[in-house]
């Protein structure tokens, strides 16, 4: 009777161990399957890392399968940041073009107005009536004060503003994309972003100095 009880206890313990082992293995298999389905085998970390092969960026389709693909990804990130600085330079040049065009039109209108007034004065009295010094000085002072408050107010046309909006949209989207890449905390990618910023500003940022030596802040920030 004692032997039977011992056999039954041994059998029950073995069955319990087998069920526990099967449950643990099933849980591990399920967890591994879930991690594979969620990450797609990608190495992603929210901490600083130096992943190369099997690292993913933005989506699972951008998966680095070899060191050569990773090198091409790094070159692409550098070119993206350089292109961002190029678009910012294009926007600044386009803004300068709008201002120059508006200044030429304003000067032409003022010149034609002065010529018309001079002709009217010559036709009416044979000579141009001089403007009193006091009134002329007051007008000059008021105009200088107005230019000091608002040097040159240019309102672009609808087409010009749409072009400016398109350029702003492109650089805003590129800057946001660069920010998303930086959020993967991959050391190589962040270094490539910094290299692209250095090269891009070196190539296209030399026009940012005003005549007085002050730096003109233009464009959008990365984040």
Automatic annotation (TrEMBL):
It comes from the Eukaryota. Coiled coil: none annotated. It is found in: Membrane. Keywords: Copper, Copper transport, Ion transport, Membrane, Transmembrane, Transmembrane helix, Transport. InterPro entries: Cop_transporter. One of its GO terms (molecular function) is copper ion transmembrane transporter activity. One of its GO terms (cellular component) is membrane. The keyword 4Fe-4S does not apply. The chain crosses the membrane at residues 69-87, 165-182, 188-206. It is a multi-pass membrane protein. Belongs to the copper transporter (Ctr) (TC 1.A.56) family. SLC31A subfamily. PANTHER family: COPPER TRANSPORT PROTEIN CTR3 (PTHR12483:SF73), SOLUTE CARRIER FAMILY 31 COPPER TRANSPORTERS (PTHR12483). This is Copper transport protein.
């Amino acid at each position: 009777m004692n032997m039977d009880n011992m056999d039954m206890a041994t059998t029950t313990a073995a069955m319990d161990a087998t069920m526990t082992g099967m449950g643990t293995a099933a849980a591990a298999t399920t967890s591994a399957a879930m991690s594979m389905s969620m990450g797609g085998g990608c190495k992603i970390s929210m901490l600083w890392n130096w992943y190369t092969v099997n690292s993913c960026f933005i989506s699972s389709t951008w998966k680095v399968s070899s060191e050569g693909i990773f090198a091409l990804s790094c070159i692409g990130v550098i070119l993206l940041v350089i292109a961002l600085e190029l678009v910012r330079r294009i926007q600044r040049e386009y803004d300068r073009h709008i201002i120059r065009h508006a200044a030429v039109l304003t000067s032409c209108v003022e010149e034609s107005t002065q010529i018309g007034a001079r002709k009217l004065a010559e036709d009416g009295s044979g000579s141009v009536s001089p403007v009193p010094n006091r009134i002329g000085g007051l007008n000059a002072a008021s105009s200088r004060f107005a230019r000091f408050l608002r040097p040159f107010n240019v309102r672009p046309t609808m087409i010009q503003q749409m072009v400016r909006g398109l350029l702003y949209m492109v650089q805003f989207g590129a800057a946001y994309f660069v920010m998303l890449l930086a959020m993967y905390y991959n050391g190589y990618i962040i270094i490539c972003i910094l290299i692209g910023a250095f090269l891009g500003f070196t190539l296209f940022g030399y026009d940012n100095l005003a005549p007085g030596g002050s730096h003109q802040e233009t464009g959008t920030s990365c984040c």
